[in-house]
Amino acid sequence: MKVGVLGTGVVGRTLADRLVELSNEVRMGSRSADGEAVTQWASAAGERGSAGTFADAADYGEVVINATAGMRSLDAIGTVDPWSVDGKVLIDVANPLDFSTGALKLSVCNTDSLCEQIQRALPGARVVKSLNTMNCEVMVHPEIVPGDHVAFVCGNDEGAKQTVADLLGTFGWPAERVVDLGGIEAARGAEMILPLWLSIMMKKGGGRFNFALLGG
Amino acid sequence: MKVGVLGTGVVGRTLADRLVELSNEVRMGSRSADGEAVTQWASAAGERGSAGTFADAADYGEVVINATAGMRSLDAIGTVDPWSVDGKVLIDVANPLDFSTGALKLSVCNTDSLCEQIQRALPGARVVKSLNTMNCEVMVHPEIVPGDHVAFVCGNDEGAKQTVADLLGTFGWPAERVVDLGGIEAARGAEMILPLWLSIMMKKGGGRFNFALLGG
């Protein structure tokens, strides 16, 4: 499958590497197609990897992943031609973490979410929030955390959520551990878990953990 | 131990019943000491239960629990004499859930929390956020959810968090499943998990579940 990965940070590179390893063809998108991070990645990725702008990567992918830093996601998404992603599954794994004031806060929450902002910016895309509630190593290798921890999906298109669950399956997520939270408004809750996640990460001194749901 | 429980709703009654069952003396506080809910509870609770105002219950307890509805918590807390809770452990189990607009939102989040508002209103109290991330049946009988799910505590007083962990131990929570998130600012994260909790509750059709932390 052709996948466009927006973002050249550790999350984007980790996802893109795993997708290439799993025989997908990946175009990583950056602000400029000849940026150092994106060209280095493409060069190391081999014949299944290529570099482009955010718009190039979104146009290239059958599935598109937003792995940009949350505070920059809307700028990146704003450069994408909406028609180029019409009908495509767009997986938003970003978190609107705003460290600009020194203290942690989210740039959007409670009555809106980054995921909904992205959906409004690209109304023809089938946007699914997923994987934002964990470290990127856990995203692509769930087996590094023992036990039945979970990945959430939410969005307004059932087929798109199934596509995401299938892709997560190739990463190693069993279907029964992909938990559908409902429509895209549920992305508020998925994003609002980040302050708790960060408290736990600081306590544990690392990100190789995840949430499980017991009972019910 | 003498415990003041503020709030006569299902959360307050469930906690108060369990505390009485465990041989604590409990005064439940309500807006008026002769309100129907609070007098009925005290009458059913027997000799270890009594009824009062919010202020009476806070004054009575060696430990005080805020189990009022989150949107009413500051009004209830505002009737408490700050000197009456000086140095006391105050456990805040409430969530600032605001359903007034039809859609779910929190009345405070991100850069502040209900727990911090309560701490500012009662600066001499040793406020600890705990138990707000689960259904009240799970709070007092963790064994109804199988497995190593967790309860969070946070607050600025280490001794107060230990007192809460000990009290949770009498409910059935092993010490290793009481997770200290750090200072009182971590209450933002604990409260912001509620939208996700509610999405899961709606999906499961009930509240008898809880989060576990795996790995790390």
Describe this entry's structure for a reader.
2 copies of one chain form a homodimer. With 216 residues, chain A is α/β, with parallel strands linked by helices. Chain A is built from 9 helices and 11 strands. Chain A has helices spanning 10-21, 36-45, 54-60, 70-78, 114-121, 136-140, 158-171, 187-192, 194-204, and strands at residues 2-6, 25-30, 49-53, 63-66, 89-92, 97-98, 105-106, 126-130, 151-155, 178-182, 209-215. In chain A, the strands form 2 sheets. An 8-stranded mixed β-sheet of chain A has the order 3-2-1-4-5-8-9-10, sandwiched between helices. In chain A, strands 6-7 form a two-stranded antiparallel sheet. The N and C termini of chain A lie far apart (36 Å). Strand 11 (209-215) of chain A pairs antiparallel with strand 11 of chain B.
Brief synopsis:
2 copies of one chain form a homodimer. Chain A has 216 residues and is α/β, with parallel strands linked by helices.
Show the helix and strand layout:
The structure is a homodimer of 216-residue chains.
Chain A: E1 2-6, H1 10-21, E2 25-30, H2 36-45, E3 49-53, H3 54-60, E4 63-66, H4 70-78, E5 89-92, E6 97-98, E7 105-106, H5 114-121, E8 126-130, H6 136-140, E9 151-155, H7 158-171, E10 178-182, H8 187-192, H9 194-204, E11 209-215
Parallel strand pairs in A: 1-2, 1-4, 2-3, 4-5, 5-8, 9-10
Antiparallel strand pairs in A: 6-7, 8-9
Helix pairs in contact in A: 4-5
